[in-house]
Specification:
2 domains, Alpha-Beta Plaits, binds ligand C2E, 21% strand, five-stranded mixed β-sheet, 435 residues, binds calcium ion, elongated, alpha/beta, 16 helices, ten-stranded mixed β-sheet
């Protein structure tokens, strides 16, 4: 180590690779420092690097080490050794203990990015930070770090937000997340999940053309838990793969029941969360479902969001092509909500785009949004694709989008998502023109 000439004293207190304190030494020293400097407000900062594991996979481990050393060198330079402490706690994680009025986090992140760019590694490497402003000095240092870590977790991978401060709400959310996670398995076993169906209309004929299946969780004590709360948790812990499969099967069961009763049906579209695309048996699973319920592929449509595209384009293209080969229609959900909607449109053989609700919300406030909507519809038509406009709530919005062309509309203006029985009643009231 010494031969490389960049490291200060290396001993059991120090991390061999970077020469910064190791985790244990940092915990001890920071506890002493915070105890001694009662008069000064301090921050604990947890930092890590985006996709560090990928860097270690893509490049040689030396490259990873080079990055970590460059980051550590900068940290040593920028922190005042008389007032601040730092360590590499493990892998690509750094922890700092800095007086609040000395912490220039934006500058630190900017400088760190620059240092790494100067190494000319062909991968975008970004630093993220979570910050806990020490309020309770008697809190063990490990818990202070946990809080900074919670703030970090909240923004990791967001690209636009590079640092966040911990607040008490985060702790409540974390506890809620743990509660949700701990209850999912039982909820599935005890049939607490069900699907609602939201009809999709042709606004020019007021007929129902299709529907979307949306999962609902009725907890025996807490009542209805919003998908906005539990879907992100399921996506983080992987449960979404099983939950989605449950939803698809419920949708198929519903279709079969109506067919057995000799009633007309419309296609039901289901959501495929991006994690599904890592399951190679996905096309088989869907084919088997169709076989099991004796359905034709047009009766089930598949909604895919852009985040799946951002993750792994080659695999997604393969998967979508396979779905198309099986006869399914594939929809792009939340079109326009991310950064690569147009790329996805360019590369993937999609049938329909579902325009994100954000556009409709802005419609009355912004002329430009009206123009964008108009051209999105034209673009889709030129590409031979269908369009669904999501989130239509008022007559005025509905009339505007209907004037744009052959669009379908999903929104509270026509109907909220309904329990299956209510959806069936709705199908009796309106003409049905499946498409
Ligand atoms: P999404 O796929 O974009 O679904 C449409 C959401 O918009 C639904 O929210 C629906 O109730 C809501 N919505 C429909 N029309 C209107 C309207 O006019 N105004 C407003 N404000 N909202 C409207 P929901 O059911 O709460 O679901 C939220 C999200 O949770 C879904 O967004 C989807 O991303 C996810 N989700 C729901 N069910 C499933 C599922 O079975 N699997 C997966 N992977 N995700 C699901
Ligand atoms: Ca959807
Ligand atoms: Ca959507």
């Amino acid at each position: 180590m010494k031969a490389e000439g960049i490291l200060p004293t290396v001993g059991t207190k120090f991390d061999e690779l970077t020469g910064l304190y190791n985790r244990e030494a940092f915990f001890k020293e920071a506890t002493l420092l915070l105890g001694a400097r009662y008069d000064v407000s301090y921050c604990i900062v947890c930092m890590d690097i985006s996709c560090f594991k990928i860097i270690n996979d893509l490049f040689h481990m030396d490259t990873g080490n080079l990055i970590l050393r460059a980051a550590a060198d900068y940290i040593k330079e920028v922190l005042n050794p008389r007032t601040s402490l730092s360590c590499r706690s493990d892998a690509d994680h750094f922890i700092l203990c800095v007086p609040s009025d000395e912490l220039q986090i934006e500058q630190i992140i900017k400088d760190l990015d620059k240092r790494i760019q100067d190494l000319h590694i062909s991968h975008n490497i970004l630093f993220f930070a979570g910050i806990y402003t020490v309020e309770k000095r008697d809190l063990p240092i490990e818990q202070m770090c946990d809080r900074a870590g919670m703030a970090l977790k909240r923004i990791k991978g967001s690209y636009l937000t590079r640092y966040a401060y911990y607040d008490a709400k985060m702790r409540d959310q974390m506890i809620e997340e743990l509660l949700i996670s701990g209850n999912l398995e039982i909820a599935l076993m005890e049939h607490q999940f069900t699907i609602f169906l939201q009809p999709i209309f042709d606004p020019r004929t007021n007929s129902v053309v299709s529907a979307e299946a949306l999962v609902r969780w009725f907890h025996p004590i807490h009542g209805m838990v919003s998908p906005g709360k539990f879907i992100p948790v399921c996506e983080r812990n992987g449960f979404i793969v099983r939950l989605d499969r449950f939803v698809w099967e419920e949708a198929c069961r519903f279709q079969r029941k109506r067919l057995d009763e000799g009633k007309p049906i419309v296609p039901i579209s289901v959501n495929l969360s991006r994690l599904n695309f890592y399951s190679l048996d996905l096309p088989d699973f869907l084919s088997l479902l169709l076989d099991k319920y004796e359905l034709e592929p047009w009766m089930l449509k598949l909604e895919v969001t852009e985040s799946a595209y951002t993750d792994n384009q080659v695999q997604l293209l393969d998967m979508i092509s396979t779905f198309k080969g099986l006869g399914f229609s594939v929809l792009m959900d939340d079109f326009g909500s991310g950064y690569s909607s147009l790329n996805m449109l360019k590369d993937m053989p999609l049938d329909t785009i579902k325009v994100d609700m954000a556009f409709i919300r802005e419609l009355e406030k912004s002329e430009r949004v009206a123009v964008i909507l108009k051209f999105v519809v034209q673009l889709a038509e030129a590409l031979g694709m269908g369009v669904v406009i999501e989130g239509v709530e008022t007559q005025k919005q509905c009339e505007y989008v209907a004037s744009l062309g052959n669009v379908a509309v999903q929104g509270y203006y026509f109907s909220r998502p309904l329990p299956m029985q209510d959806f069936e009643k709705l199908l009796e009231k309106f003409p049905i023109k499946p498409r």
